[in-house]
Amino acid sequence: MKKNLLLSLCAFLVFTYGNSQTTENQKLAENNSKTTASASVKTDRKTKILRKKHAKFLANSPFKKTLQLSKEDRKAAGLPPNKYYERQWELSINPATGNTEQTNVLQLQKQLDEERLTNRTPGDASDNNWVERGPTNVGGRTRVLLFDPNDATNKRVFAGAASGGLWVKTDITTTTAWTRVAGVPGNLNVSCITVDPNNSNIWYLGTGEQYTSGDAVGNGVYKTSDGGTTWVNVPVSYAGTTFTSGDLFLAGIFYVQDIIAWNNAGNTEIFIGVGSAIYGSASPNQWSGAEQAGLYKSVNGGTTWTRNQDANMVATASGGKNYYVIPNDLEKDALGNLWFSSTRTIFGTGGGRIYKSTNGTTWTLEETIANARRTELEPSSTNANKFYVLYQTNATVPAIGVTTDAFATAPTTITQPDDADTGIAATDFTRGQAFYDLMIECDPTNDAILYIGGIDLFRSTNSGGAWTQISKWSNNNNLAALTCSLVHADQHVMSFRPGASNEAVFGNDGGVFYASNLSSAGTSAVIPSRNASYNVTQFYSIGVAPTTNGMAGDNFVAGAQDNGSQMFLNAGAGAGASAQAQGGDGAYSFFDQNIVGTDRYRITNYVYNLSINLYNYATSTSTVINNATIDPTGNSYGDFICPMGLDSSLDILYSDYTTGSTYQIRRYADVKGPTITRTTLTNALLTGEPTAFRVSKYTTASTTLLVGCQNGRLLLVTNADGAAPTWTNITGASFVGSISDVEFGATENDIFVTFHNYGVVSVWYSANRGVTWQNKEGNFPNIPVKCILQNPLNPLEVIIGTDLGVWYTNTFSAASPTWNQSYNGMSDVKVTDLQVRNDNAVYAATYGRGVFSGVFTSAVLSVNENEITAGEFNVYPTVNNGNVTISSSKYFGSTKLNLFDMTGKNVYSNTISLDNSEQKINLGNLSSGNYILKISGNNFEATKKLIINN
User: Fold this and answer.
1) Are β-strands 157-161 and 883-888 bridged in parallel, bridged antiparallel, or unpaired?
2) Which domain of life is it from (predicted)?
3) How far apart are CA 115 and CA 109, in angstroms?
């Protein structure tokens, strides 16, 4: 049977183009006009009620105060340094309940995985429709590292990313590339891993963590039985159920803090520490996994689980229910006994406890450290009585202790290391982040050699009596004089190379680093990064240069979490490296789209309106649009990752400039300089904080600006560049939630709007500039939508970026469009931004898997999928210089070859006799880029994606 296959190489969707744009726009307008007044009236009362509830939840958000804090204040309060998670929680809540419904994403992900086993839907073809673009040289937050126990060379390493899944590298001692491991979803937070002591091919992996205010939701436990090649989710039968008792107690295993496999007389027992979190502005308050938290055990390979509910495991008793201590760090001592240290529950209790078990069933409380919160335990590998303990105190600073009698007496305090950075206090090497970056390990052959990680890394050779700094996160102030390695900040994990304790790998917010000689690390740069193709970077936004700007190759810039603004300059096809254009947290990024004279610039920002910078490639000059010196209020005005919009025609940047409940927009005119005019815009119609901007490309003599707001209001501002802008409220009668994206379509009358929230209509469209609106939710599931684009070549085709990848429809004009996931080539990862280039190339920024790209096209390739099965023929290499080999396992006879570029142009044709042999084909002298090879013969057709690099 024949199907239309999505044609797209660089990463995207193939779209049919049967009718003219004029005809299809008319269809959209006609369908939009069918929204009747009576329907609008019926929904209006319900909408008003939901809007009031939504406003109340936002006003009472548990993060209302913390979001206003600077990074320094957050550290002092013991809060995660990155506000993005908190802000995303606010923007994503269901307006009816005040809850986020993150389990919807996990359930939908499982359903889609099952459907892919049996169904073929457009966008789910064997040819990848999305192409990964990198960065290949920048990593991301990593909490799990494991040397492959089945690798005789002890060079193969697995790494788990905070939101990028599981990865493997064949040789950690070299700069070879990482590859992603299938079976562990790419949007999951990988938090811990363990190996079966009785079968080194069986491993268990935990997901989710509560360190980031519970926002990194996991999906329980995964298991491999073939040494990490394939993975399956292991259901954990948890204690308790979802119930409401004033508050909502949502049942589930959302946060696996740690996991360990233990040999009990030849039988493997698996233990997991399960955490929980609370969201206090929901109605009722939402307690995620509160009743399920505790220590769980499985004695049958994860088939069934039981929780330890002994009396000494109770952390809090409330409402007739017991809430159990949360294991934070599971360990084995030199004799093989089990130990764990705890972290605080959501009631603020149970932290600093240390338990021991000799049989895996009975646990004794060996020590309670007063006023301790998150607690890490490090046993000696040679002395069963010696333990180090590293913990966060109630003053949010760390403390270190050591015991040589297995906690028979209280641990002796160790003086903590003093970081050379003058911005880090001598009494706090974590710089106020002991809840977040807290790492301790001791040498497996010499327990006097101790390693500590906070912002930087430290080494002691006398059990903490003295310390040597072995890494620095920057070269500022006193750090410049150190000769140790430059290693990314925020240390999370260390793993020694088996059989070589002077070598180790480290995981931090910048990815993976390998130490080749730890004993000389204090004076030598021996800890280089190992991030080649470890593409787990978390991007917020992306700006793409037009092809008309005179710059060679592809050029785009993207703002990343804690990895700055990454510039991809003259990028070739496929994944490539980037260079840091600006440090810290990257935020909204832009490329000028209107190339006139010396107009050839990019714009990057840090956070808020704090550090907005322009670089002009035409003149090789930099301009500071705003910083703390120019505008001290910019340090905290606007959102943490501050929404912005660029008018390329007039060189004006618009930015959220809200402070408290004063909602305003900052206008930066003449951004190229030398004189930049800064003006604050406000209006009575602006009743919520701006969350999305879009400048019309159709009006060039003045600015026509769309402003989407947190409270669901949509404003059209004309003459926004002038002294007296005109503000118009074009909010749809049934809009509820927080607007995530606003876009103009084929004309200035075509407007698309998406919403962050669960439980709302996420996609809206107007064909008449906001006079009336049509619900375009269709069959789209109940998950957040972050961005939207219309295919410039076919108005009926639209793509959206969501918390679960990219989805598309080619029936947008229908009253109820059919949405499908465009999965192939991109994992199930949050897509935060979509941008289309002037040549219809599309770029996607993801939160955990870097950047992807592709092309909107108008061509259709008809494929008879049932005739060609896997292995019957092959075309290789898929990345080539125009020379390929075609092989087949059986006789197909006369076969036509047609090669298409991404505009749909046929650039090569030939006819060959395809038999059970190999044939070498020269496709001619073609430009570097992405192509689709269509192969057709007697009763069969197929396509292959090729990347040509010349």
Assistant:
1) unpaired
2) Bacteria
3) 10
> Could you give the count of Cα atoms lying within 13 Å of 197 in the half-sphere of its Cβ?
13
Q: Are 665 and 707 in contact (CB under 8 A)?
A: yes
Dist CA 716 CA 760 (whole Å): 22
Contact 206, 193 (CB under 8 A): yes
Identify each DSSP E strand in 416-553 by its residue range: 439-442, 450-453, 457-460, 468-469, 471-472, 485-486, 491-497, 500-508, 511-515, 539-544
Tell the burial category of 29 from Cβ atoms under 10 Å away from its Cβ (0-12, 13-18, 19+).
Answer: middle
Query: Nearest CA to 204 among 251, 151, 273, 141?
Result: 273
CB count within 10 Å of CB 416 equals 21
Separation of CA 209 from chain center:
14
Q: How many CA atoms lie within 13 Å of 98's alpha carbon, on the beta-carbon side?
A: 24
Q: Quote the CA–CA distance of 755 and 742 in Å, as a whole number.
A: 9
Give, rounded to a whole angstrom, the gap between the first and last alpha carbons of the chain. Answer: 37
Where residue 431 falls (left for φ over 0; alpha for ψ -120 to 50; beta otherwise) is: left
SS3 659: strand
Q: Which two tokens stand for residue 35?
A: 């929204």
Q: Contact at 8 Å (CB) between 642 and 586?
A: no
Closest CA to 79 of 67, 88, 89: 67
661: how many CB neighbours lie within 10 A of its CB?
Answer: 9
Candidates 681, 547, 541, 537; CA nearest to 603 is 541
The upper half-sphere exposure of residue 501, i.e. CA atoms within 13 Å in the direction of its Cβ, equals 12
| Bond from prior residue into 877 cis (ω within 30 degrees of 0) | yes
* CB count in 10 Å sphere of residue 793: 18
Strands of 511-515's sheet, edge to edge? Answer: 491-497, 500-508, 511-515
Contact assessment for residue 231 and residue 184, using Cβ atoms and an 8 Å cutoff: yes
CA distance 819 to 816: 9
- Low-confidence residues of the chain, pLDDT below 70? 1-43, 53, 57-58, 60-86, 89, 97-129, 211-216, 241-250, 278-286, 597-598, 823-824, 827, 857-872, 902-904, 939
Rounded Cα–Cα distance for residues 402 and 327 (Å): 20
- Helices vs strands, H then E, count in the chain: 5, 73
Length of the chain in residues, anyone? 950
What are the C-alpha distances in Å from 651 to residues 361, 592, 601? 68, 8, 10
Q: Give CA torsion, residues 216, 217, 219, 223, to 10 deg.
A: 20
Q: Looking at residue 870, what is its pLDDT?
A: 41
What is the per-residue pLDDT for 865?
A: 32
Structure tokens at 689: 């904080």
In single-letter form, the type of residue at position 617 comes to: Y
Q: Which domains does the chain have, with CATH numbers?
A: 539-689+726-855 (2.130.10.10), 873-948 (2.60.40.3080)
Tokens describing residue 384: 């069963």
Cα angle for residues 871, 15, 872 (degrees, 5° grid): 10
Amino acid identity, residue 308? N
Give the long-range contacts of residues 422-425, CB within 8 A, separation 24 or more.
422/477, 422/478, 423/476, 423/477, 424/455, 425/397
Per-residue tokens: 736: 């509820």
Paired with 941 in beta bridges are 936
pLDDT at 120: 24
- Which residues face 414 on adjacent strands? 400
Which residues have C-beta within 8 Å of that of residue 561, sequence separation ≥ 6?
82, 84, 140, 141, 537, 538, 539, 540, 585, 586, 847
- pTM of this structure: 0.79
User: What's the distance, CA 117 to chain centroid?
Assistant: 26
Helix extents (H) in 93-167 = 103-116
Which among 58, 62, 95 has a CA at the least distance from the CA of 658? 58
Instruction: Record the tokens describing residue 786, joined without a space.
Output: 């972050």
Specify which residues 138 forms β-bridges with: none
Q: Residue type for 111, please?
A: Q
Closest residue by Cα to residue 379 from 413, 355, 350, 346: 355
